[in-house]
Amino acid sequence: MDIIAILFYTFLFLLITLLLYPFIMKHNKHRATSKPKVPPGSMGWPYIGETLQLYSQHPNTFFASKQKRYGEIFKTRILGCQCVMLASPEAARFVLVTHSHLFKPTYPKSKEKLIGSSALFFHQGDYHTRIRKLVQTSLSPESIKKLIPYIETQVISSLDSWVSTGQVINAFHELKKFSFNIGILSVFGNLEGNYREQLKENYNIVEKGYNSFPNRIPGTAYSKALLARQRIREIISEIICKKKEQRLIEKNLLGNFLNYKDENGQTLTDEEIADNVIGVLFAAQDTTASVLTWILKYLHDHQKLLEAIKTEQMSIYEANEGGKMPLSWGQTRNMPITHRVILESLRMASIISFTFREAVVDVVYKGYLIPKGWKVMPLFRNIHHNPDFYPAPHNFDPSRFEVTPKPNTFMPFGNGVHSCPGNELAKLNMLILIHHLVTKFRWEVAGYNQSEVQYSPFPVPMHGLPTRFWRDE
């Protein structure tokens, strides 16, 4: 009887299993297919991936073709790194704001060595918050309004030097010099000429090595850059020592660094200060110079708009007794046409095409897996050139900024806790330079092909926009 019962229950179990098998398999198949996969895309060649395609053509071409083929989320390989690129405002906000704790700032180690591992933009968390607060305080509107007379002096000096040559100049290179001097001003205040020239000379060497192949073979650009970076560190330490001896702690960025103490009374080390000073100088130069170069180009190409700006600026010029009085902070806040030109130039040029983050854990976004360790790149350029947000996006049209852009569709300075803290100073530089340029000078672009763009590493007009300046009599 027991054997019959066992056989009966065995038969019953096999029958139920047989009947349920299709449903079990269907459920398992559903579970297997529902597991998130990495986004679609192409990884290109081994190691180098699609780096050459990205940097050998106009960035609009590369990004737009990818988005058209794969959608707003796609994978690629850039500079040897597996990447996920995100081309929507929602995705940028996800990575940079609402879920920023899942992603960390990331830079190649070779570049980190040249700037300094303690620099603000390599960190997150408490240290980043403390340093960022110091930088923001130093570059806040309340602080930078005091710099207007000094910026004006630098603007006039630069414009006079461009005119005095009587020749065509590389506008981008000259604007880099101008931007570097403003960076020095914002960090150190009125720095002795000897120190300024030493910093400039060594910074230029660091810059040449920044995008070179990273090796330490003596004589290579990268090796020279490392040595120059050490000399910059020594120069900054000497400046710090001198200011401490003289008890001359000014209310500028360096002064705020020197005065800082945390809740335990700990101060910043000279190395931490030097790394962050170099980081600010690095961030201040190329980006501002690149945008100013594009502004020269756009105004040169749109003469009616140039006349409108000139009319706006001449009314301020005349109110200041023909330029005898300095610009006031209030006047720089009341240049609506000029301000819209700057915003449209930032959108069109999109100097920062994307930013790098790294997933610190596996992240699922819109059903796709972003594996831990992969780079994540919100594509500001794609968003800024999306016709859904900016009709006829390739037309230069400052009037579009008469209306505030939709949230997360205009991010020329990034977004979230790692957005650029110096954006107000950058815009102030542009406003002051445009004011003096259009009220006292004229310029023409020499032999420029509108379709040609070069990368150094930011996109600028070919050959740095060869330009000749002269006084407007």
UniProtKB/TrEMBL annotation:
DNA damage in keyword set: no
Pathway: Plant hormone degradation; abscisic acid degradation
Gene it is expressed from: 11445728
Protein name: (+)-abscisic acid 8'-hydroxylase
Residues passing through the membrane, by range: 6-24
CC cofactor: heme
Major place of residence: membrane
Residue ranges of coiled coil: none
Reactions performed catalytically: 2-cis-(+)-abscisate + reduced [NADPH--hemoprotein reductase] + O2 = (+)-8'-hydroxyabscisate + oxidized [NADPH--hemoprotein reductase] + H2O + H(+)
Protein family membership: Belongs to the cytochrome P450 family.
Keywords: Heme, Iron, Membrane, Metal-binding, Monooxygenase, Oxidoreductase, Transmembrane, Transmembrane helix
Assigned GO CC terms: membrane
Membrane topology category: Single-pass membrane protein
Binding residues annotated for heme, in chain numbering: 420
A Pfam short name: p450
Protein localization: Membrane
EC number: 1.14.14.137
GO molecular function: (+)-abscisic acid 8'-hydroxylase activity; heme binding; iron ion binding
